[in-house]
Design a protein that fits this description.
Belongs to the glycosyl hydrolase 65 family. The protein is of the alpha+beta class and 768 residues long. It contains 19 helices and 31 strands. It has a nine-stranded antiparallel sheet with strand order 1-8-9-10-11-18-15-14-13. It has a five-stranded antiparallel sheet with strand order 7-6-12-17-16, with no helix packed on it. The longest helix has 35 residues. The structure holds beta-D-glucopyranose (BGC). The site of beta-D-glucopyranose has 12 residues, from loops.
Length: 768
Amino acid sequence: MTHRFIDDEWKIIEEGFAPEESRFTESIFTLGNEHMGLRGFFEERYTGDSLPGIYLAGVYYPDKTKVGWWKNGYPEYFAKVINSTNWIGIDIEINGIPLDLATSKFRDFRRELDMKNGRLTRSFVWTGPRGEEIVFTFTRFLSMTRKNIACLAVEVNSLNFNGVITLLPYLDGDVTNEDANYGEKFWTKINQELTAETALLTMETKKTGFRVATAMATALHNRHPETPLPAKKELCSAEELVGYRYSVPVTAGARFTLHKLVAVCTSRDFAKADLETTSRAKLAKALADGYDLLYEEHRAKLHAMWEEYDVVITGDIRAQQGIRYCIFQLLSTYAGSDPRLNIGPKGFSGEKYGGVVYWDTEAFCFPFYLYTNAEIAKNLLFFRYRQLDKAKENAAKLGLKGALYPMVTIDGTECHNEWEITFEEIHRNGAIAYAIHNYTRYTGDQSYLLDYGLEILVEISRFWADRVTYHPRKDCYMILGVTGPNEYENNVNNNWYTNLMAAWTLTYTIDSLNLLQTENQAKYAAFIDKTGLTAEELNQWRTITEKMYYPYVEELGIFEQNDLYMDKELQVVADLPPSELPLNKHWSWDRILRSCFIKQADVVQGLYFFPEKFDRETVRRNFDFYEPRTVHESSLSPSVHSIVASRIGYKDKAYALYLRTARLDLDNYNADTDDGIHLTSMAGSWTAIVEGFAGLAVRNDRLTLAPYLPGPWTSYSFKITFRGRKLRITVDREQVSVQLLAGAPLTIVVYDDEVALAPDFCRTLKTR
Ligand code: BGC
């Protein structure tokens, strides 16, 4: 764990440059606008350690699978969102010598991510051999209003330097992925053009044929008009590179800014034939409006987003900074403006996980979108609906009926290629079914369930019914050879969580079928016809749910994570020397697999999903047993443990786990943020506040709250939408206030009291 950034409510500030941590800080300073995003790597050349990465949402490449030992059923490729044309580059020379923070001398390095305004600033003072000094200040933002536009500025201020400063803003299509399986280059050049006004570079992905036209314009502005700036601008190009070279003779006191505007358009959004014209037109419009206006409209849009999504915490600046960072990164990556997209675990911040979709979306991100804007949550459900046929193909490939959603995908095809996950981590199917239930319960809108979701549920149920094994001696159903959410154990039998999700899905499917039959007999008949569902199948599903086997430890009154878990050497994390954590960086994989240490919420994940199924004492006993053995080496884990801790009144624990989830990347808890941020767990941090501290749930069709004030907080406040209403919930030491900001009157339950809400009226209750 590190404490690298200055505590601030709205900013992430780094003072001093630590080259050995450059990948970590590059991840932290990621910016995005849903359409595109980039790591916080430098504009100018940097020969130190760095992972340059500019990613375009939905633009991917099928990288041929590379494994040591091929197993039947492995996917042929891993679809990854890939590094694309570098439009950030601005090389700089000072009297002919490259400015390179790996070799140049400098002082007062400072980086600041201003989350309120969505802008990254970096500055330092270059120092020359004779004590000359130049202040460089770089700013960048990706427009939230014009998703194709990015704006960069470099301000140069010569304190006492006399000489020539050269700036070379460029577009470079010669980019690679560090994780390319066969060192392949994923792009080919289609066109490059360069005029005095505009540079253009058009690249296309091999195989998938995504075409990307990037247009750039630059301008130099003298900030010190008394000192003339006889700058010279030359065109400069090479293979797959277009740019301009500005040579600026300066004297002490000179101050100027280079603006670089780029427009990035992809063939996902525009016809290939129009792509270059569209990019140019967008760039021309941006140029005409100018940098300042672009920035103004961008920040106004962000302010409006903050108005809806902000969580305001007082009394705990680190908690405040943590949650704003999470919200900022989430909204920068996926705010629902393109329903074809989904949420990759690293967002735009790195290559790991390929920028594609995991169960993370349904199990961890879903509540954030559901509670703030259910339409976005519905888009996420449709994303899976559109991939149902591929999920059926995926199950068939494994010789099973029904649908098995992939562990990792972008277009519905499984991409994961480790047998213990691809073939065994089948619990992911359960999270997709659960999200359908969660959406329906929260919104009260049954249309998705009945018109689309039910088809998914039936196919997932068919999968479970085929995947279970009947055990005649014990007269029960088991699920053998699986990996539960805890990936620190593989190929186990009867993972309690997986068995629970399977049986629950079968029941929920049957209940939903009954609902459809009651609601609309004709539609039900058509559905049965379409899916070919038989009475035998339904009977079999009922029997499976009745006879599902759940491993249980009688003497402790807890669920056993899976068969034989209790036969392991049962230690707790507190017994481990801190120097051995995280285990995945210190222990052999074999040792991890044999140990009792749990990577992430597993039994606790099941307790989290179904609070109504388990009484508080049962939850407490299980939590007491499993939490001390959980190393939380998946970022997804602490938020779930935090919520469950809140429910059983373990407030200190809930708060400690909250900090761990909300500041996971800022404090680099798992020493792995250099690969990229943990975006999907960031949604969990938000949920830890809303479902955990505020106790939000829907019970008996009523919105309920049971808030408390965690740790040193003096208050917190957030907004949600619920069935056409907008609510603001504020909790402080004395009272819980619920304000109906928009929508019709509504009765909710706070603690055990019914509270009638009327528009613009704030109801308050004493905090318990
Ligand atoms: C976790 C998985 C998760 C994946 C992507 C893994 O480390 O164990 O549960 O889906 O990361 O976030």
